[in-house]
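User: Could you write out the 3D structure of this protein bound to 1-O-phosphono-alpha-D-glucopyranose? I've included everything you need below.
Assistant: Certainly. Input first, then the structure.
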Amino acid sequence: MIRSAIVPVAGHGTRLLPATKSQPKEMLPVARKPIVQYVAEELVSNGIENICFITGRSKTSIEDHFDSDPELTRVLTEGKKQDLLDELKFEELAAKFYYTRQRVQRGLGDAILCGENFAGESPFLVALGDSILGINGLSRSVARMSELFVELRATCIIAVEEVPEDEVHHYGIIDPGEGEGDWTRIRNIVEKPSKDSAPSRYAVAGRYAFSPIIFDMIRRVLPDKRGEIQLTNAIQLLCEEGKRVVALKLPPQDKRYDIGNFPSYFETFVEFALADPLYGADFRVTLERLLGRK
Ligand code: G1P
């Protein structure tokens, strides 16, 4: 089983300005929780015990969120606010948290490299901090990736999701080879191809499992036009070297919520709010009223 995860959260979130001017995009709420809490809860429920956030300037609220707050707990306890105390139960998440900073933003590959000492000699997971898997983060796919990693003696497993043709240019896209059931070999991978050059419609969906050999590959990658070291290029090197690189096709219930821009943020928020056990039913009525259906 894979026990450690690197969660890169260093990006500026420029596509979500002004909301992200002084707060991390990973702390934006989706229904009642910040995005990053869904991610951490998903990882822990999939067997991850150590989580290392690769942060940057103005990301300290992520650290504060997972810390306990004795003052707040005292006030709520004195006020006998058990329901609110229950909302803080996530502070007891069964994982150890680590934080390190990517001092200069040099791309996703470089951010992952900042976690090299944390990962050590064991296989590890990468979970993008702005992507939630499954409604309320209830996905089991990370555990499946971990299982496949061992079963197939893989060097890398990537969760993929089929996207419409006009969205391939937003993602890393795989060139699939032969496979079986929910997985397929990856022959090659291209970062953000045009719709005409895309080798498939299977997009990298924010969760990767790696053997530590990926760090050597990242070191070999040259910066792109924007000076960024792309993780996708390091995976491409794994493919070229004939390593076993495999895609796990996410099951339909594990829809991937990518909170990188306002339209997808709005959609995710509404979908999660509608599914909220406490407020969902009333919110549905409100939404129907707003849409003029009632
Ligand atoms: C990154 C990766 C890309 C992947 C995407 C998933 O891109 O480089 O391969 O498909 O995340 O969200 P970004 O969204 O950081 O531009």
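The two ends are 51 Å apart (CA to CA).
User: Perfect, thank you.
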